[in-house]
Amino acid sequence: MKKNKSHFKKLFPKLFLINLMAFSLTACPAPKESAADTTAEHFAKQLPEIQGEEQAVLTHAPQVPPAITRKHATKVTVKMDVIEQEGELSEGVRYTFWTFGGKVPGQFIRVREGDLVEFHLRNHPNNKMPHNIDLHAVTGPGGGASASFTAPGQETVFSFRALNPGLYVYHCATAPVGIHIANGMYGLILVEPKAGLPPVDQELYIMQGEFYTQGAYGKPGLQPFSMEKALAEKPDYVVFNGAVGALTGDKALTAKVGERLRLYVGNGGPNLISSFHAIGEIFDNVRHEGGTLVNHNVQTTLIPAGGASVAEFKVETSGSLVLVDHSIFRAFNKGALGMIKVSGEENKAVFSGQQEAKVYLPEGSARQTMPQEKAPTSTAAKTLEDRIARGSIIYKQNCAACHQPDGAGVKGAFPPLAKSDYLNNNLKQSIHAVANGLEGPIVVNGESYNSVMPKLQLSDQEVAYVLTYLLNSWENKGGEVTPEMVKQERE
Ligand SMILES: [Cu+2]
Question: What is the pTM of this model?
């Protein structure tokens, strides 16, 4: 027991001292004003002195306000407007968002540990609802919620000391809280530690959230909130930065080889936990749960609803990194997908690209002795029917996940191949798309798409089979694509 105690003393000398002090105080009671003082006055004396004042720079995602360079605490005034307004949730899909600052997620707030924050919440006169704000960075009742309860056309003010450094979520906490959050009322506040954060080349702001709409994913028009789906925790949309495609196509994030990036990632929920992952990268450092602990070499960081994480990495080679919630149907079918396009030189020492692709014939298998039954794509199929059948298999394995087994596509995400005017009217460009991949805005049957179809590792023969299958399926125009035609379109 004794041994244990001295060991404890070694590990926690300060704690031990405090213990001793407490002991001596109870042993001989001291006058009221002295050390055991737990009064607010005494506590206030221990806070850093406030020098000067400034107005907070607020930014919309994916932008982050500049790093704080001052070395003292100050009074920071934050003025935030609540705006209820209709916007685009996905191509052709409208939603009435309730926002902090006009967009989802709310504006990014950046202060320094020890700062005195004077928060002004202004509820726009055109709004219909009262709102407030609960900042997880606040030490105090409701995180400021009741102190900031504001009716339309009103402004409220409250102040707090940013006592704990970290990355924190803020959200509206007006009843019914779930609906206010589900409509987009969340954002991030960074309380920079006194010593600051290590410099990086780029800082970015990404926040995940779900939307519960009455219409299924992609159903066009103004979609009302669905309480039923919210209660069942079954969103139709799981998105980054407030909309499907907010971080893809021409809105993709960009970086250069060699840069260090820091992502401030939040999760507004209201219900789901995010398994945040960057396809093709490993996070060098993760400030787990937005706190002080730094973990290294992380593949996927778990971000609770109402929580955050800081992920840092250096980009070593060029290409596209894909940001996803690794609960993967959310990424490819509900919108939780973003992109960082990295420009610069490919780094072959880090990643070679495909070095070889060839038919695999297991040794000793029956196939070796029966050459006429080789792997399906290694010999030409004799009849059009055979070629269509082979194309059908290739389609199921390589294309159906995105374009759907019936070729109908997914509205707003993956264009249809069934009765596609793009496919039927211009065979060359479709061959080109399948052979080389496709990126950028296109219109299929009057609907716009602006996404990325990856280049798939298929031979000319396989591309020919799959396109022949497409042409002869789902009321498409018929016909045939040959390997020679594919060869001409290869880049
Ligand atoms: Cu609200």
Answer: 0.66
